[in-house]
Specification:
This protein is of the alpha/beta class and 671 residues long. It has 24 helices and 15 strands.
């Protein structure tokens, strides 16, 4: 996303590659096409590693050292002014477009992380990337990775150079290249293992995506090309073949990869090696270099850093105002070229080319470019806390009676007394297990169970469905699933569990009369269940993702059945349009019906699940869509009452709306 080249070594084909990379990202973010367009970021990483390393290696050859002051002065002049400007302007616009009831506060915190170049760490620690789909600073994680690399690169190169400087130039290339290759291979293997769920770190798949250690190899390919100059007769002859291979690799990546692909993983080899191949081809063929230097792409390459910064806020604001309108989002992305050009010509370039900004002046520039956005973010956060004169819509949230009745990643405590809703002369106990969907159904289940004379115990943990094997990113869920099975067994200790019976001692219960599952399904299409076998693999194709969700749920049902306990599965509520995030520009909430037939993923998962369960006795399913959806329209408002708390969860009113039909289902299962 950045450029830092000396005029004598300027390569127009590199600018063309930058232009291609940013164009892929802008189109991908609009949602109009190119499912793998996000690989433009990986292309940037390779290009940055190559360009910056070329400059540093030349300096080492000429002077035997690296001027850190000069290097970081160039980086500061190039990066910080544009970042500060985009941050302040975006924060200002967010006051009008983003809701002050949670949305703006999150924007302010993300802006702070971006200004201090730790947005990748922030998103990893908060585990919030996919919930920040409408955050105008979400794209800053990649800039943070790049800047963290810039802190490491000059120090590492200088240290390595000191070790090899006594050798011949050829030996220096071999030794430095070998060191970079080894580090890159280790980084690649580390990232690939994490991408496929191997628990080398907490939240391994998230760390693979956001972590600088798992991305080093992408920069490393560029660094290697800068050190080992792949030029000569053999490469000139191979240039066309390398070019064709590279184009095929990038086209394959853009069209075949998607947001569901385990990434970076080994599939990142496509865009990374493809970009490296294009750099080699352009270096060895004037004709191919000219082909990659076509003026429109090269011009976009000049603007690539600024356009990358500006395009995402414009895209987010357009999708906030016109939801799910990909053509408008794409148009907004291209409209953002206007502030990009203005910023580049009148703001970025004058500062970047001002060689007098060194020493103390650089420190002042850095201070201004960090402090001003931080102050702006604090101001926006405080303004948002006032509500900006808006009144938050009142919609009942998830289940009231069973609130906080679940485990967390940090605690295995569960209050049997608080979370068991009793009746006199109880016939037995019904357990409600699952994720946030179970919590959303809880009040209706409690009402039905109590009416039939049963106690109802609720154990619902957000993000942790009652299914065997944990979804991606929530490995702690496996322990919770094991505890739930202990309860089904009457909380008798099993020696094959890695935790101890002390938890059960305070929660000993009788075997339940019925277990109800309340799981989301579509929630885990991006965080799919690992495949059986315990090796951490994740399914890549759509059908295998669906199969993994169905099989994981069926396995849990069978384990409960082994205890001679009947099971009722409540399907997740059909999604509707309910956006309560009002703002100054949009002061009214959007509450609209959605088509049942459009919910293809949900319906396919449950159709396959019912087929899987067809041969099992004492198992039944309950689909809220049968009550909520009429004539293909799923309604968020019934009898003038809002029944949803968000697009996919019922509120207390909606939960109790299901109660009468649930009572009949439960009664039939219990005989």
């Amino acid at each position: 996303m950045t450029s830092d080249s000396q005029q004598n070594y300027f390569r127009q084909d590199i600018q063309g590659l930058r232009g291609l990379a940013v164009l892929l990202v802008v189109i991908y973010h609009s949602g109009i096409g190119l499912p793998g367009g996000f690989i433009g970021v990986d292309m940037f990483f390779v290009i940055s590693g190559f360009v910056i390393s070329q400059i540093l290696v030349r300096e080492l050859k000429l002077t035997g050292t690296i001027s850190f002051r000069e290097f970081y002065s160039r980086r500061a002049r190039r990066l910080l002014p544009a970042l500060a400007l985009v941050t302040v302007v975006t924060l200002g616009l967010s006051v009008f477009v983003i809701s002050p009831f949670g949305g703006q506060q999150e924007v302010a915190k993300t802006a702070q992380a971006a200004s201090l170049f730790y947005a990748n760490a922030y998103m990893f620690l908060e585990n919030t990337y996919f919930s920040l789909a409408m955050n105008p600073f979400r794209h800053m994680w990649s800039l943070a990775v790049e800047e963290q690399f810039y802190f490491l690169l000059p120090i590492s190169l200088l240290a390595a150079w000191k070790l090899v400087s006594r050798f011949s130039e050829r030996s220096q290339q071999v030794l430095l290249g070998s060191a970079v290759a080894v580090i890159s291979i280790l980084s690649f293997v580390f990232g690939a293992l994490l991408s496929f769920g191997y628990r080398l770190t907490p939240l391994p798949e998230r760390f693979a995506f956001f972590g600088t250690p798992s991305r080093i190899w992408e920069f490393g390919v560029g660094v290697l090309l800068a050190i080992v100059r792949l030029r000569g007769k053999i490469f000139k002859k191979m240039a066309s073949g390398i070019f064709i291979f590279s184009v095929v690799a990038i086209v394959w990546s853009v069209t075949q990869l998607s947001s569901y692909t385990a990434f970076p993983g080994y599939v990142a080899l496509g865009p990374v090696l493809g970009t490296g191949g294009l750099i080699i081809a352009g270096h060895n063929s004037e004709r191919l270099s000219q082909l990659m230097s076509i003026r429109p792409l090269a011009r976009l390459g000049d603007l690539s850093y600024g356009w990358y910064l500006w395009h995402w806020p414009f895209t987010v604001f357009s999708l906030t105002l016109w939801p799910e309108n990909a053509p408008i989002a794409l148009l907004a992305g291209f409209i953002s070229l206007a502030p990009t050009i203005i910023s580049y010509v009148w703001f970025e370039q004058p500062i970047r080319q001002n060689r007098s900004i060194t020493g103390v002046r650089v420190l002042r520039l850095v201070a201004l470019c960090i402090v001003i956005p931080l102050l702006a973010s604090v101001l926006v956060g405080r303004l948002a806390n006032t509500g900006l004169g808006l009144t938050q819509p009142e919609v009942k949230s998830l289940a009231g009676a069973a609130d906080d009745c679940g485990f967390t990643a940090q605690s295995d405590q569960w209050s049997k007394e608080k979370c068991t809703f009793r009746v006199e002369d109880s016939k037995g106990t019904i357990f409600l297990f699952g994720d946030s969907q179970a919590r959303a159904f809880a009040d209706g289940v409690i009402k039905s169970g109590n009416e039939l004379g049963y106690n109802v115990s609720v154990l619902a943990t957000a993000g942790c469905p009652m299914a065997m094997r944990a979804p991606l990113g929530v490995s702690w869920c496996e322990d919770i699933q094991s505890r739930l099975l202990e309860l089904v067994e009457g909380c008798e200790y099993r020696v094959d569990m890695n935790w101890h019976s002390s938890w059960c001692e305070g929660n000993r219960v009788s075997k339940p009369s019925l277990v109800i599952f309340g799981n989301s399904a579509t929630r885990y299409m991006g965080d799919e269940y690992r495949l059986p076998g315990g090796d951490g693999r994740l399914p890549n194709e759509f059908k295998r993702r669906v199969d993994s969700i169905v099989s994981a749920t069926t396995e849990a049902v069978q384990l409960v059945q082994n205890q001679k306990v009947p099971v009722l599965i409540i399907f997740e509520a059909p999604s509707v349009t309910i956006d309560l995030g009002i703002s100054i520009i949009q002061p009214h909430p959007r509450i609209e019906s959605s088509k049942y037939s459009d919910q293809i993923r949900r319906n396919e998962i449950y159709a396959l699940l019912e087929l899987d369960l067809a041969g099992l006795n004492s198992v039944s399913t309950f689909d809220p869509a049968n009550l909520i959806c009429i004539n293909d329209l799923c309604r968020p408002i019934i009898d003038s009452k809002i029944i949803y708390s968000d697009p996919s969860h019922l509120n207390l009113v909606g939960s109790e709306f299901l109660s009468s039909a649930l009572t009949q289902k439960i009664k039939a299962l219990l005989g």
